[in-house]
Write a structure and sequence with these properties.
Number of helices: 16
Strand order of the largest sheet: 1-2-6-3-5-4
Strand content: 15-25%
Number of strands: 11
CATH superfamily of the largest domain: Metalloenzyme, LuxS/M16 peptidase-like
CATH topology of the largest domain: Cytochrome Bc1 Complex, Chain A, domain 1
Radius of gyration: 24 Å
Structural class: alpha+beta
Order of helices and strands: HEEEHHEEHHHHHEHEEHHEEHHHHHE
Largest sheet: 6 strands, mixed
Shape: globular
Distance between the termini: 65 Å
Length: about 450
């Protein structure tokens, strides 16, 4: 009897899990009277409201040549002082008193400037009022600017960055230069030094505009209230942004091996080639290829060969980097200097094996099952849902992609994956950047 009950419970859990794999998120989307895009998921299961918003295209790719770091400096200084005279400590204290968890947070990447916060639903309006003073009436202080200008982005200096961090920066430059994506979003030491208060104010006027502003909100609010909060907060912004035109990046993967000497006990190595844009019909096949190649610890081919069988590295992995106008398939590892050449040969060989022979049916099934299941974690928190919906919009995907992704992935066949591998993977064009003392051994 107990055995029968147990089997029934397991059966029910399997049914429930399968339903979760393809569950839909119910959302609404509209453009406000002030022409601001809003994506909204009603959720009365919690008192907290998750708010994410971004200015699409306002990121570091729009920094003027010679003033790299402008987007990063501008965004950081926005929170240093307000029109009311509050410094960042007073500002964050005020936000904390309103129940804002972790304060108003932000990120600046190559493409976008992104802000987010989470607070009780009855405090959403006063938080929006604070954001209004920050974004629409910025106060930039000369002393604060001088402090931040003297900050040297760690990844730009070999002496103060890790070997793999510096190798990654160099690889991006090699593959993407002279495109703006080749420059770190934090900018360069030289560019930051010549940025002025006038530059900051001009950047705010040019980049913070209603036609590039999009909101993604999850919580227990009415659509009318949310529209009012958004429009009253940002109505003073210009209607249209003023950005430079950005071209598609020309990725220069030529098989080059770049050595950067550093007196260190181990070497950091990063490698890469062109990837597939997230909007492409072949992108989901690339997800599986990456997962099998090096995207998953303990089971990927590179991990099994370089770590489990030969014990040459502590970890090795691959990943997909996507921007609006570029995509890379990259990987990296750190090891003792004498093992660099052996691991590079392993990487090239596994790249070649998958290109020529494809992945197995067992690898395909295991990867797809893992990717389907891990995606369910996106739905585990309101904040995760808000962030994913915003990311879909910023990546030029249908907002409904959150409901389509697993269904589309489930339709991908082994034959399609191996065909993409055959046309995409180019072991002979993999570019390697090695930071350390491994030059004599990496042949």
């Amino acid at each position: 009897m107990k055995h029968a009950v147990f089997k029934f419970l397991v059966f029910c859990l399997i049914i429930l899990f399968n339903q979760m794999l393809f569950a839909d998120v119910s959302f609404q989307e509209w453009t406000t009277p002030k022409k601001i895009r809003v994506i909204f998921v009603p959720d009365n299961s919690t008192e907290l409201v998750s708010v994410h918003f971004a200015f699409k295209g306002a990121g570091s790719r729009s920094d003027p040549k010679g003033k790299e770091g402008l987007a990063a400096l501008m965004t950081q200084l926005l929170l240093e002082r307000t029109t009311e005279g509050s410094d960042r400590y007073t500002l964050q204290k005020k936000l904390k008193s309103l129940g804002v968890i972790h304060g108003l947070q932000y990120s600046v990447d190559a493409d976008n400037i992104h802000f987010w916060f989470k607070c009780p639903k009855e405090k959403v309006k006063p938080v929006f009022e604070i954001i209004k003073t920050i974004i629409t009436s910025p106060v930039f202080d000369e002393k604060e600017l001088a402090k931040l200008k003297n900050f040297d982005p760690a990844a730009s200096r070999l002496a103060t960055s890790s070997e793999q961090e510096f190798a990654g920066k160099t690889l991006t430059q090699k593959l993407l230069s002279p495109h703006p994506y080749a420059i770190p979003s934090a900018g360069t030491s030289e560019g930051r030094q010549i940025i002025t208060l006038a530059d900051l104010l001009t950047a705010v006027r040019n980049r913070f505009a209603r036609n590039v502003l999009v909101f993604s909100v999850v919580g227990d609010l009415s659509t009318q209230a949310l529209t009012q909060y958004v429009d009253s907060t940002f109505e003073k912004l210009p209607e249209t942004a003023n950005f430079p035109t950005i071209a598609k990046a020309d990725i220069k993967a030529t098989g080059e091996m770049v050595f950067i000497p550093k007196d260190a006990p181990q070497s950091g190595v990063v490698f890469g080639q062109a990837g597939i844009p997230v909007q492409s019909k072949d992108y989901l096949a690339l997800l599986i290829i990456n997962d099998v190649l090096g995207g998953k610890p303990f089971t990927s081919r590179l991990w099994l060969e370089a770590r489990e069988k030969q014990g040459l590295v502590y970890s090795i992995s691959t990943d997909i980097l996507n921007w609006e106008f570029a995509s890379l398939l990259i990987g990296g590892f750190e090891c003792d200097n004498k093992s660099v050449g052996k691991i590079i040969n392993i990487v090239r060989q596994e790249w070649k094996n998958i290109r020529e022979n494809g992945i197995s049916e067992a690898e395909f099934k295991a990867s797809k099952t893992g990717l389907l299941g891990s995606f369910v974690l996106t739905f585990s928190t309101p904040d995760g849902i808000a962030q994913y919906l915003l990311g879909s919009y910023l990546n030029d995907l249908p907002v409904n992609y959150i409901n389509q992704r697993n269904k589309l992935l489930n339709q991908v066949t082994l034959e399609e994956v191996n065909q993409v591998a055959k046309t995409l993977l180019e072991p002979e064009k993999l570019t390697f950047v090695i930071v350390g003392k491994a030059e004599a051994n990496a042949n």
